[in-house]
C-alpha cells in the first residue's frame, strides 16, 4: 500500500522490549494530558493483523510525538479546555496508519484535530498517503469554553483542526456536512484504505457514510467508528455485510474491523446512502 520504503530505523527508534515501549506510551500520554489514551495491544493486533514486534516497533516511535502532544495540550488549555481529548485512541490510530500504510484515509469529525494530527504524523513517517477530513464545526461563544457549551465547538477566530500544530501537504479538510461530502469524496477517490467515523453519531449518519464509501473500500481496509453506543446496529450490520469481525477497544464503544482480502460485492440496494 505504499510507494516509498521506510528509512532504515535506528536502534533508538525500535525498542524491542515492551517495558521500554510502555514507558514511551506513558510519556506521550502524559504530554497529551489524556489518561484515556492508553494503548490496547490486543485491539491493535486484531485490527492490524501485525505481529507484536512490528507493533512494538511503531509504538516505540511515540517519543518522537511528545513535542506535538505537548503543543496540542497547550492549545487546548489556551482554548479554554482543561481535559479535551475527544478521540480516545490517538496512539492506536497512529500505529494503525504506520502498520497498514494506507494511501487514502478518510475521517469525519475533526473539531480540534486530535485524530487528524496523529494520522498525519503517521502518514508523514510513511512518506506516503493523504488524509481527507470532513467537518461541520459549531462555534464557541467566547475565548473560554462555557459550561453549557460542547467541547467540540471551535474557539473564536479558529477553524477545524485548530489544535494541530503543523501544516501538512497531505491534509485536505473539507468544511461541509458529511451527508453530502462523504458521497462526493467517495466519487472522487480511487480507493479508501482507512476510514474513521467521528462526527454525527446517529445510526442513519454512520450507515450513510459506510454505504457511500463501501464501493471504494480496498481489500484489507480498516474501518473505525467511535461512540457506537449511539449508532445502534449500523456498524455491526456493515461488518456483517462485508464479512468482517467487529473488534471493540476494550470495554469502550470505539470499534473497528478489517475488511477481508476479497470483498463480497454489495447486495442489491446495499450501497445506497440512507436518509440523513
Ligand atoms: C467528536 S468531534 C471530532 C473529534 C476529533 N475526531 C478529534 O479527535 O479531535 C465531532 C466533530 O464532528 C462535527 N460534526 C457534527 N455533525 C457533523 C456533520 N453533520 N458533518 C460533518 N461534521 C459534523 C462536529 O462539529 C465536531 O467538530
Query: What percentage of the residues does DSSP assign to strands (E)?
Result: 5-15%
Oligomer: single chain
CATH 4th-level superfamily of the domain at 88-258: Vaccinia Virus protein VP39
SSE order: HHHHHEHEEHEHEHEE
CATH architecture of the domain at 88-258: 3-Layer(aba) Sandwich
Count of alpha/pi helices: 9
The CATH C-level name of the domain at 88-258 is Alpha Beta
Cross-sheet strand order for the largest sheet = 3-2-1-4-5-7-6
* Average pLDDT reading: 90
Task: Describe the overall structure.
With 276 residues, this protein is an alpha/beta fold. The chain has a domain at 88-258: Vaccinia Virus protein VP39 (Rossmann fold), CATH 3.40.50. Helix content is 36%, strand content 13%. The chain contains nine helices and seven strands. It has helices at 18-32, 41-48, 52-59, 66-78, 90-100, 114-126, 178-188, 203-213, 234-241; strands spanning 104-108, 130-135, 171-175, 192-197, 217-225, 247-248, 255-258. A seven-stranded mixed β-sheet has the order 3-2-1-4-5-7-6, with helices on both faces. Helix 8 (203-213) links the parallel strand 4 and strand 5. The longest helix is centred in the first third of the chain and has 15 residues, at 18-32. The two termini are 33 Å apart. Mean pLDDT is 90; it is low at 1-13 and 270-276. The structure holds S-adenosylmethionine. Residues 86-87, 108-115, 134-138, 152, 177-178, 198-200 line the site of S-adenosylmethionine. S-adenosylmethionine (SAM) binds at residues 86-87, 108-115, 134-138, 152, 177-178, 198-200.
